[in-house]
Amino acid sequence: DTGVSQDPRHKITKRGQNVTFRCDPISEHNRLYWYRQTLGQGPEFLTYFQNEAQLEKSRLLSDRFSAERPKGSFSTLEIQRTEQGDSAMYLCASSKTGRFGYEQYFGPGTRLTVT
Amino acid sequence: AQRVTQPEKLLSVFKGAPVELKCNYSYSGSPELFWYVQYSRQRLQLLLRHISRESIKGFTADLNKGETSFHLKKPFAQEEDSAMYYCALVFPSGSARQLTFGSGTQLTVLP
Description:
The complex is a heterodimer of chains A (115) and B (111).
Chain A: E1 5-7, E2 10-13, E3 19-24, E4 31-37, E5 44-50, E6 53-57, E7 65-68, E8 75-79, E9 88-95, E10 105-106, E11 110-114
Parallel strand pairs in A: 2-11
Antiparallel strand pairs in A: 1-3, 3-8, 4-5, 4-9, 5-6, 7-8, 9-10, 9-11
Chain B: E1 3-5, E2 10-14, E3 19-21, E4 24-26, E5 32-38, E6 45-49, E7 60-64, E8 69-74, E9 83-90, E10 100-101, E11 105-110
Parallel strand pairs in B: 2-11
Antiparallel strand pairs in B: 1-4, 3-8, 5-6, 5-9, 7-8, 9-10, 9-11
């Protein structure tokens, strides 16, 4: 296991199209996070899964965004009817429950450009 | 609302000079604080966390609850320390334990 992986690494789409990103966490990690990072800013929390349950969502996660984690393994983040403001780096992170269970390991990110 | 502030977007120092990256937070309780680093073309990775009081790659950070600060320090900067540094915190009362990040400081260590 080489760490958290994300696919695709880059996505260019036209405004109004739907896009879906995938995250594969470290295999024994039960916690999975999605963050969004725009230019010049730190990552901002979007949503959190513990196993297959989506337990928390940020106000940043509009109705056009949906995330799933079927069977508690990989996760997908879908953006419907993309807007130019959705252009950002989307980061996935995973961690496991434990003494330092909040140590999150990040993936390389998916850079979305909406034209 | 909880917030993490990194006042310097850019910081340049010469090799061998001391470096301090500032981080202030706004939270009335006792957050858990971290420094993350992102080297060029690499993913974000944990550098250190305050509860373990560790020194990683010569870096240390002390939590000052009175000043609500968690500055990152290194006595002698090296060129390989050039990277983007993010201060982040977790609120222990939350179940998600999501990270709240500052906007980052780009450190450049000059030869």
